[in-house]
Amino acid sequence: MEKTRKSNKRLQTAKELSRVVADYYKECGAAKADGRPVGWMPPMNGAIEIFYAMDLQPVFPENWSPVCAAFGLTPDNFDVSEGMGYSRDLCGYLRNIIGYVNGPINDPSFPLGSLPAPDIILSPGGGCIPVMKIFHALERRFPEAKVLTSDLPQVAVEDIQEHHIKYAVEQINRLVAFLTEVTGRKLDMNRLSEVVQLSDRACALWDEIMTYRRFIPAPFSAAEMGIMFVMVTRQGTRIAVDFLEKVLAEIKERAANGIGVIENEKIRLFWDNIPLWYNMGVFNYFEKMDGVVVAETYSAAWSLRLDTSNPIRALALKSLMSYPLVSCVSIKKRREMVLKACRDYHIDGVVLHRNKSCVPITLGQMNIKKELEETLGIPSVIIDADHMDDRNFSTAQFQTRIDAFMETLHAKKQSLAMKIP
Amino acid sequence: MAVSVTSPFVQALNTHAETLTSLVEEGRKAMGYFCHYTPVELIHASGLIPVRISGGPGDVEMAYNLAPDFICPYMKRGLEKALAGNYRFLSGLVQGYTCDIACGMANIWADNIDGDLFHILPLPYEDTEESRRYLQIEYRNLIDKLSDLGGNFSDSSLEASLDIYARIRTHILEFYQKQFEGKLPLSSSELWQVIQAGFVSVPETYLDMLEELQAELISLPVPDPTGVPVLISGSLIESPNILDFLESRGGRIVADDLCSGMRSASTTSRSSSDPIERLADLHFNRFPCPSRSRAEDRLPLIQQLIEKSGARGVVFIFQKFCTPHLSDYPFLSDQLKADGIPSVMIELDESWQADAQMGTRLEGLFEIIEG
Ligand code: SF4
Ligand code: SF4
User: Fold this and answer.
1) For ligand 1, is residue A358 a contact (CB within 6 Å)?
2) Of A151, A166, A360, which is closest to B126 when you measure between CB atoms?
3) How far is CA A119 from CA A38, A146, A184, B17, B343, in A?
4) Is residue A5 included in any domain, yes or no?
5) Using one digit for the tens of pLDDT, what is the confidence trace for A75-125?
6) Do B130 and A154 touch (CB under 8 A)?
7) How far apart are the C-alpha atoms of B318 and B242, rounded to whole Å?
8) What count of Cα atoms within 13 Å lies in the side-chain half-sphere of residue A262?
């Protein structure tokens, strides 16, 4: 299994994805010439809808890292940041983006036209520490950008109360006031309402797409996770909705015709934690052993239905919930989600990626493992890796662990089949 | 000489588990916390004893069944001790989201360690009118939870707690002032012991101990300073051996930016008739931890410490895998270098053993400074 291998894609719409990705970055590159101020922001919060509603250009430095990984450019970025003194023990997103902005950002040959420098930076207080520190470093790198420090205390989803929402609403209002001041643009509430409806529509489509993962054989797998791109960068736009409608239609058809990812699907797997962006080919490895990764925790974070009747409050809630849902802030909620997914998608085994680059998602995994085994009797395996840094991934060790795990799952399945008359 | 004046503190540290266990048997309750962003005054004002979890040097085995190895030794060892039953005297944990590990660990404790209350306090970052209003509601929620545990909170009990902790902090800062001036007749590891004892003692008792120590210090001779004056910066130092090691290699610690050191005492509140407001002041006025601030906000504070203490170099002593400190290190070391203050960074694992290479690096720093 060679590294930086791409996963096998089966969806036609996945092929269209490269156009969607290229268009987005083209739009980012053209923003300044088109008079749209560029704002760099952390992912998973309601600022994206505000940006699209105000016709500003949102850019997500954290999500630029998977792009760099897909093009095999992360090692160079790591060299730059490590040369600046950033430790190899820090999250790979942090090391990659800091290396990129202090390295090849202005290289015209950089794939997808590179990223435009920010006019605005939304620097988060809240979320995980690496994201916060990424933005501090960006403020340093782009001193001419206007900075808003947002403030969202991390509260477990199950503990959210009215005063948290009120505080988050105040933060959204602060953001709008800041954007108005620095760009001179006003937020049109009707336009925001439209954007939030589109965002919610994308989430509804996303949720519907996910329901087809219940089908046996699974019509698509984690290998197609790239479709999530629109949920990350295009929330609140027609582009996301149109694309997801196409994906849904294709998946529906595959499900109706019983077309699976592989011919002989025997084992259905769940993947916890971020995938290995530099080696999506690991998903193919399961397929060789009649296994399909049919569900994952990571994708769930990007879909939160919004109350379209109250856009600001909806965005406040989204901002409050997104990070806790996938991290160690809401271990309980996350565990519940994983267990539910395992039931819904008829999962036989769980692969827990112990991710050196993401402690917030890795913490709590062992509690999930225990619960999976005790409550559902679902076996799991831990693989040690890193979502960005291939130096922390050993193909041989991965294969040994997965071989043994798949063997156990096959044996378990067989013995179950023998018991059923 | 100094051994005798600090021995009550050493004794308090060494026997804190027994002391707290008997207090709990007598009906008191003790509440754990990791970082000093936890409002200990609220816990104390509710009648409970706030106890800071410590890691300390040692092995990690059981904790690896619940957490990965790439987290700081402090948190691994704290969990290990809890799993071994060393924290049975606690009724739970109250912890703010300081760093990612602190939050995740509090949740892991909640799932795996016996206790009645595991509360994560979602703390605001910015000091604004809205955030103060918000924080007050969070404090009230915590008070309610502590009351459900049998806590007995009142505004006047909070005032009393605020006063006790303020006096404790004043004493600690006075020690540091003396250290800056080269007039503290205690070694760095002795000062470390004095401060750590406070994290695990009943505050009233600790305050008495500090007052006694202050009185005793007056008559003690101050040894002539030797070694290159340095500031140490990091999170928690969990073994005084590393301080002795640094000094044995030619350094002299004259100031620190540690959450197990001066930072634990560096905050103030205005005098206000509303004790909850005073408490919020303490939150926002802290010498900030990198987990809750920009390196740019901390730099001038570190520069001030350097100026006050006459430190000529900085030794960053980090817990291995500590993201907040590791992230700020490149900026801070660069800026200090530009000020003519050289630095080195050393990372320690749960053994807290310094190795030969660290010794060489420290000696290298001291040589550079001495020219
Ligand atoms: S630590 Fe995890 S959540 Fe945070 S930036 Fe890194 S990958 Fe994202
Ligand atoms: S700030 Fe660093 S040392 Fe402190 S708990 Fe977090 S990771 Fe550990």
Assistant:
1) yes
2) A151
3) 5, 6, 13, 55, 34
4) no
5) 999 999 999 999 999 999 999 999 999 999 999 899 999 999 999 999 998
6) no
7) 11
8) 21
Nearest CA in chain A to B105: A363
Q: In chain B, pLDDT over 90 holds for what percent of residues?
A: 95
Low-confidence stretches of chain A (pLDDT beneath 50): 2-4
Tokens of A269: 């797997």
Residue numbers of the domain that contains B116: 9-154
Whether the CB of A320 sits within 6 Å of ligand 1: no
pLDDT reported for residue A5: 63
| Mutation for B interface: A363, A369, A371, A387, most B CBs within 10 A | A363
Q: Is B35 part of any domain? A: yes
Residue B68 covered by a domain: yes
* pTM > 0.90: yes
Domain-located, residue A6? no
Interchain pair B120, A156: CB under 8 A = yes
- What chain B residue is nearest to A90 in terms of C-alpha separation? B323
What's the number of domains chain A is made of? 1
Query: By residue range, what is the domain housing residue A249?
Result: 16-419
CATH number (domain holding residue B102): 3.40.50.11890
- Using the predicted structure, report yes or no on whether residue B1 has a pLDDT greater than 50: no
A269 lies in some domain? yes
Q: In a 10 Å sphere around its CB, with 0-12 CB exposed, 13-18 middle and 19+ buried, how is residue A163 labelled?
A: middle
Contact: B327, A354; criterion CB under 8 Å: no
The answer to the question of residue A342 being in a domain is yes
Q: Are A278 and A3 in contact (CB under 8 A)?
A: yes
Q: Kindly give the number of the ligand 1 atom that is closest to the alpha carbon of A327.
A: 3
Look at residue A304 in the predicted model and tell me its pLDDT.
85
Residues with C-beta less than 6 Å from any ligand 2 atom: B 72, 74-75, 99, 101-102, 235-236, 291, 319, 322-325
> Count of domains in chain B?
1
Residues of A within 8 A of B68 (CB-CB) are: 354, 356, 359, 362-363, 365
Residue A151 DSSP SS3: strand
Does ipTM surpass 0.90 in this model? yes
What single-letter DSSP state applies at residue B326? H
Reported as a single tens digit per residue, the pLDDT across B184-224 is 999 999 999 999 999 999 999 999 999 999 999 999 999 88
Task: Say if B193 falls within a structural domain.
Answer: no
Rounded to whole angstroms, how far apart are CA atoms B132 and B126?
A: 9
